[in-house]
Write a structure and sequence with these properties.
The protein is α/β, with parallel strands linked by helices. Helices cover about 30% and strands about 30% of the residues.
């Protein structure tokens, strides 16, 4: 696998992020996920699959006083995320553990289970049984799961979320029916926000969040439209991608 890297600017250059030139590269989805997390100063946060660290770094930039832990299984991505955390001076806020999210987390659960105010993730969007598998191993690990992937990621999210804690995923719109089914088993106050590539188009992504042990009803929010009819980013999206604004301000 190529180890050639690029140095990219996020949030209008306020953050500098090292990424693999050939491999999974964080983009709009990561920044939008960070914008959707309704955390506050003092909250304890967990990212499943921290990758290059973009989501958690963007979140730490927007909300001061957080404590963030990231789980990641890919050693190369762990090294890159640590570089990015140090480059953006968040090493006192964001820590990483090498963890296989779909493996046995019993020892970690015993020490950190049900302690997080927020758990968030960008799980693999596609299933190996129904999608073309990328040749690049890094892209494969980030994008391709299996029939049990979403079940396992939500199960692990619930294991680490405290009662009343919020769990937030971004994923492909085609997975929304399954996500709704899985979230509703142990969560309430579920919020669904579809993401549209442009005005008058079909949604391609979705942000879904829920509160562990809540009995509150589901809410469908207005969708996030990335571009207008001329292909120019909407003001709302510009605020998120360039200024680091919250999705629901």
């Amino acid at each position: 696998m190529s180890s050639e890297k690029t140095l990219d600017g996020f949030l209008d250059g306020k953050l500098k992020i090292i990424q693999l030139k050939k491999g999974y590269r964080a983009g709009h989805d990561a920044v939008i996920l960070a914008s959707s997390i309704n955390a506050k100063r003092g909250d304890n946060c967990l990212e499943l699959g921290i990758g290059s660290g973009v989501v958690s770094i963007c979140l730490a930039h927007r909300i001061k006083g957080l404590t963030i832990l990231g789980f990641e299984n890919n050693q190369q991505m762990i090294e890159i995320s640590k570089e990015n955390i140090e480059l953006n001076k968040y090493q006192k806020i964001i820590n990483i553990l090498k963890v296989d999210i779909e493996g046995d987390l019993k020892d970690i659960q015993n020490s950190k289970g049900q302690t997080f105010d927020h758990v968030y993730a960008n799980p693999p969007y596609f299933n190996s049984e129904s999608s073309i598998t990328p040749k690049n191993d890094n892209k494969k690990a980030a994008n391709i799961g299996n029939a049990k992937t979403l079940d396992l990621w939500i199960k692990k999210s619930l294991a680490f979320s405290k009662s009343g804690g919020q769990i937030t995923f971004i994923n492909h719109i085609n997975n929304l029916p399954k996500l709704l089914h899985l979230f509703s088993k142990k969560m309430g106050a579920i919020e669904v926000t579809p993401i549209f590539p442009k005005r008058n188009s079909l949604a391609s992504r979705v942000i879904i969040s829920g509160v562990r042990d809540s009995k509150k009803a589901i809410t469908f929010n207005d969708g996030l439209i990335l571009n207008n009819s001329k292909g120019i980013s909407t003001k709302r999206v510009e605020g998120i991608l360039r200024k680091g604004c919250a999705l629901r301000g």
